[in-house]
Amino acid sequence: MTRPPVDLAPLRRRRQRRILVQLACIAVSTFLLLPIVLIGLSALSSRTALTEFPKPLLPSEFDTESVLGFIGGTGVVPAFGNSVLVGVYTVLLALLLGAPAGYALSRFDFRGRDAYQVLILLVRALPIVVLSVPLATMFLRVGVDDTVFAVTLVHTALALPTTILITASIFVGVPRDVEEAALVFGCTPLQAMRRVVLPMALPGLAASSVFTFVLSWNEVLGAAVLTLGHRTLPAQVLASLADSPNAYRFAGGFVLVLPALLFIFLMRRYLLNMWGTTLR
């Protein structure tokens, strides 16, 4: 007795799709990581290796002189501290203002909700260069110019749209029934929020913090215009490395990228959890 032929075409198509997805992931990862790797290799190369031609893929000599020289440069350490403060303050303020707005978008059906979601994105439609001059004038009048607080306000305004939309998508994923059950069993609305909703939304809030911190850390134009004596690290790099040799430029770029990568690495578990929640 002969068995009927097995149709292997669906299995082959599934395997081909899986291979294509893997190749696409590798291509996107390479596109994103290649500049960081090249900057890191250049920053850790000796000056002799940096000027070699033709340039090998891996430098012939590794040297930390440029990186240490950049870190020891005038104003770099205070600028690093200012960037950390601005990033942390921006995360806290954006969550304090954006999370309640995201919760309202996810839970309440009010008139103009769709228009409101579009209008909050208009903040990002205006270039920061256009906003910086009037903001600098206003900060001068109220006496908060050239301060960490002023840069924090600008970065919070830039981060609020993404914070609101991310937290809204996360609160949508928290079952309303669970929150209502907490209210039935005697919790007040604030207790239900603190004991039920916030623990379930924690991955999304952490992921929102990642985006906000990286946005604040990398923002340079607003900080460069609004500050002079209290610059953030990107603004300090922009001001001090304009006439510097290439070795210090690569070192500055490498040092600038490291804290953001470290923050993402520490928060990666919450970021992956948020993707799992939103993709369900």
By DSSP, the count of extended strands is: 0
Number of helices: 13
Question: CA-to-CA gap between the ends?
Answer: 47 Å
Name the structural class: mainly alpha
Cα Rg? 24 Å
Helix content: over 70%
Structural account:
The structure is a single chain. This protein is mainly alpha-helical and 280 residues long. Helices cover 76% and strands 0% of the residues. The chain has 13 helices and no strands.
Topology:
Layout: H1 9-43, H2 47-50, H3 65-71, H4 76-107, H5 113-119, H6 128-142, H7 148-173, H8 176-184, H9 189-218, H10 221-226, H11 233-240, H12 246-266, H13 268-279
Helix pairs in contact: 1-12, 3-12, 4-7, 4-9, 4-11, 7-9, 8-9, 9-12, 9-13
Key phrases:
single chain; mainly alpha; 280 residues; 76% helix
Summarize the structure.
This protein is mainly α and 280 residues long. It has 13 helices and no strands.
